[in-house]
Amino acid sequence: MLEIKNLHVEVGGNEILKGIDLEVGAGEVHAIMGPNGSGKSTLSYVLSGREGYEVTQGSIAYKGQDVLEMSVDERAAAGIFLAFQYPIEIPGVTTMTFLKTALNAQRKARGEEELDAVKFLKLVREKAKPLNVTDEMLKRPLNVGFSGGEKKRAEILQMAILEPWFAILDETDSGLDIDALKTVSEGVNALRSPERSMLVITHYQRLLDYIVPDKVHVLSKGRIVKTGGKELALELEKSGYAEYGADEAA
Amino acid sequence: MTDAIAQSFIDTFERERDALPGAGGWLAARREAAIRELADAGLPHRRLEDWKYTDLRDVLEKAAFAPAPAHQGAVLLPEGDAGSGAALFHAIDRHKIVFVNGRLNHALSDMDGLPEGVALRPLAEALEQDWAKAAIERRFDTNPQAQSISGLNLALMADGVALHVAEGVALDKPLHLIFLAADDGASHARNLVRLEKNAQATVFETHASAGAAHYFADQVTEVSLGIGATLNHIKLQDEAAKAVHLSTMRAALSEKAKLDSFTLILGAGVSRGQTFVEFEGGEAEAHVNGAYALRGEQHADQFCVVDHAVPESNSHTHFKGVLDDRSQGIFQGKVIVRPDAQKTDGRQMTNALLLSRDASVNAKPELEIYADDVQCAHGSTIGELDKDALFYLRSRGIDEMTARQLLISAFLDEALDYAPHEEARAELKALVAGWFEAGSLSAEDIV
Ligand SMILES: Nc1ncnc2c1ncn2[C@@H]1O[C@H](COP(=O)(O)OP(=O)(O)OP(=O)(O)O)[C@@H](O)[C@H]1O
Ligand SMILES: [Mg+2]
Questions:
Q1: Residue A27: pLDDT band by 50, 70, 90 thresholds?
Q2: 8 A C-beta contact, residue B188 and residue B102
């Protein structure tokens, strides 16, 4: 599904990712853990094509396509989705309008028929309910005035509606209360399928109790320094990142 | 010293004076005085503070407009012409008045069918009304520089309408004044609106071309609101790309009167819109809002002075604009709170969004406060499209063009929401949406 080879990325002239190799097969869920500033969000932004992240070496292939040749919206239409660590507020654009525009833009890009207002409303209601996203939230401008937890739930609602093939969840658990963590995890698990893969970035093992990963990677100072099974997360919870050099001067 | 362009207006006056409305009556002397004033002062130019960004003298000199002729033959109302501002408001049940080249066109207008207590007359027939005379004779004492340019209109005004609504009467449906330029040249129109105590009216104005390309539309509207009267006003400026549009609205508000005015500017090569609000009684309220979208070489200058001379009145002014290509936007505003005007609430805001590196905005909202117990605020922002917001939208599969349009509409909608008539507001929003589609929002423009 996704194949990253020797990926080097610079931000503002500083090399942040220093040779990442990562392969995520169809249907797999991989977790990425690692200290603050190690480059986890950087990786997620490079995958989605954010400006200012310069790939100096390496490649990213998604379903056999060269991701680095694709624009931001082409990647989205091809099924790459990023649930932001810090979702952006969009004043003046209601969540509803945004969702409809996004879904229909993707459908159009894939040569599918656009959904009419009635069908769309039905779809949103159906997806919003289990995530406790209220009608009132849907009428508000996107993310504006949403609490931290509401923003994260709104991200997962977007994912549920857009049904991507490769989802990156960047600290979706941070800011969620215990109940919301469960709701959101259920939402994510509902999307798991043999054709859909996920990259789950988190600091806490707890999330991985709900969304059980096939593999766990430790990212430190721009490199994947260890890969293991789900038990690696438990180990990290106990021992921290010290043995991966997190406390050394960069 | 009389500049060349002022001289050409003086020549026009000399030629046409005997045919102008009110010739031989009291107005003739006022016109004489105005033309003398124009001869002395000339047209406003950039060395005058209030005209710093718009050198009207230079603009008119270069354009060298001859007087617009009386239009011969039929004029087609561009009602079905989608995307054109002139096509707006036709689906709304309203009284329609059409001006062609600044002159009232009786064939296209419905002067009749007005409810009792509402009088609508051509300017020439209203001159002997006391209220009309008083409106024309008022001077722009708080703003002498505005006086100079309204003098041009006073001297040359050839037509217009006078709307009078009697005490307690509400105009049953909007009055729609459509100003169409069918032939090139300069025209000068004057409208008068007087709402007596507790009267109500909604007035729409459309300014557009019906075939003319190179013209100067000069207009003054005098508004006088009696105690508790309410005027809702929507103006759409969609003039041709090479047109020069100059308009002045002056409103005097009695106690508890309310003016709610909204302007959308999409057209004209060079435009200057002036609004002067004077409060004459307390607990009155004035909203002067607007939106503009400019591209190419367009230049739009909004000048708005709100004068609080009596206690307890509110004013709210908010203009928002987007500017593409090499266009230029100007907002100059002033809220004056005189010593007696305690408990004034006065606000003036302007926000602009630059879509291109070569577009520019000058914003100068000012407060002049001489009373101590007041609530006033003013501010301006000039920005670009938010890159993070654009990325976020695009990361959901929305293509760049659509993402930009979405953010720009969201920005302008906040201003369009002020338009004080629901159906008209929806039509204005649709027109603005069309502006994007017709436009040059291309990837190269990205700042
Ligand atoms: N625009 C920028 N210019 C310079 N350095 C940057 C820029 N953006 C990010 N960085 C740096 O890149 C490094 C990696 O940041 P990134 O956000 O990817 O970390 P992270 O692993 O997601 O951390 P966290 O766990 O705190 O979310 C940090 O040291 C950060 O300061
Ligand atoms: Mg991060």
A1: very high
A2: yes
Does residue B445 carry a pLDDT above 80? no
- Average pLDDT value over all residues in chain A: 94
Helix (H, G, I), strand (E, B) or coil at B239: coil
pLDDT at residue B446, as a whole number: 38
Note the pLDDT of residue B443.
37
Contact (CB, 8 A) for A59 and A68? yes
Domain span at residue B155?
4-445
Q: List, for residues A71-115, the tens digit of each pLDDT value.
A: 999 999 999 999 999 999 999 999 999 999 999 999 998 899 999
Q: Do B395 and A77 touch (CB under 8 A)?
A: no
CATH architecture, range A2-244? 3-Layer(aba) Sandwich (3.40)
Res A250 pLDDT > 60 = no
Quick check: B398 contacting A, CB < 8 Å?
yes
Q: Using a 6 Å cutoff on CB, does residue A40 contact ligand 1? A: yes
pTM across the whole model: 0.89
- B200-209 sheet: strands from edge to edge: B103-104, B95-100, B175-181, B200-209, B230-238, B258-265, B285-294, B314-323, B345-354, B375-384
In degrees and rounded to multiples of 5, residue B218 shows phi and psi of -115, 130
Q: Nearest 5°: phi and psi at A76? A: -65, -45
pLDDT score, position B74: 82
Q: Is the CB of A13 under 6 A from ligand 1?
A: no
B381 part of contact set with chain A, CB < 8 Å? no
Rounded Cα–Cα distance for residues B76 and B390 (Å): 43
pLDDT at B75: 81
Is the shortest distance between the CB of A14 and ligand 1 below 6 Å?
yes
Nearest CA residue ID for atom 6, ligand 1: A11
Do A147 and A139 meet the contact criterion of CB atoms below 8 Å apart?
no
Q: Is the CB of A16 under 6 A from ligand 1?
A: yes
Q: How far is B383 from chain A (nearest CA, A)?
A: 14
Q: Over pLDDT 70: what percentage of chain A? A: 98
Paired strand residues for A14: A11
Per-residue confidence at B85, pLDDT binned at 50, 70, 90?
A: confident
- Ordered by start, the domain boundaries in chain A are 2-244
* Residue of chain A nearest B399, judged by CA positions: A73
CB contact under 8 A, B387 and A71: no
Amino acid letter for position B397: G
**Number of domains chain B contains:** 1
Q: Provide the angle, in degrees to the nearest 10, between the axes of the packed helices B4-16 and B26-41.
A: 160
Question: End-to-end CA distance of chain B, in Å?
Answer: 45
